[in-house]
Amino acid sequence: MNKLVSPFIDLLFPTVCACCGSSVHQKNSHLCPWCREQRFDKPDPEQLQLLPESVQMQFAMWSFDKGGYLQDLLHKLKYDFLRSVGEELGRTLADAYLNQMDSEQERLFEQFDPIIVPVPLHRSKLRKRGYNQARAIGEGFAKVTHWEIIEPNGVQRVRKTKTQTGLSAEKRTGNLRNAFQLKNSAAVKDRIPVLIDDVFTTGATTFELAGVLIPYSKPSVIVTVAKA
Questions:
Q1: How many CA atoms lie within 13 A of 48 on its CB side?
Q2: Does the pLDDT of residue 2 top 80, yes or no?
Q3: Is 208 left (phi over 0), alpha (psi -120 to 50) or beta?
Q4: Are 49 and 103 in contact, with CB atoms under 8 Å apart?
Q5: pTM score, two decimals?
Q6: How far, in Å, CA of 76 to CA of 59, rounded?
């Protein structure tokens, strides 16, 4: 019955791109091909980021556009219950990340198994939102890479922190100190954690998380949809 009804539903209520409003003919997609491939700018390659010893690499697919289409799309993911947007962004992010990997990175992943670690939400925010947007992105990422994703409670956000918006880099770091706790060290032992989040700003969140993992794991790789 669904197979008979579905074409008529698509005709009457066509899926439209979450950015430009154009019809999207690809099933389970929220972005038209043009927006996915052309809409957003790549991060400035000359904008160097100092990384702590617990992080070996940082990659972002797009440059964050404050007040623009990408910010609106990520807002929909986080606050409008469009979890599937995160899964689609995760698949797109995985393709972009794999395409830029060099031979050295490939050898590392062959030697030390990668494990996807989405940045966790505090339980109070998780209850309010209903899902973790970073995990939604991570699950889409895993479908393309076929890498293991850590179980939801493998690493937890044990301290409720203030929003990072508007804080200086120093205050962001202080705000996140001791915010994460690794519950299953065996899951990351001698592996390369691939930390997944929506936006990389100063790195305070992912650097803090990587610092919690490093006593057991190899240095982390940070992969995000956007870089501010």
A1: 2
A2: no
A3: alpha
A4: no
A5: 0.88
A6: 23
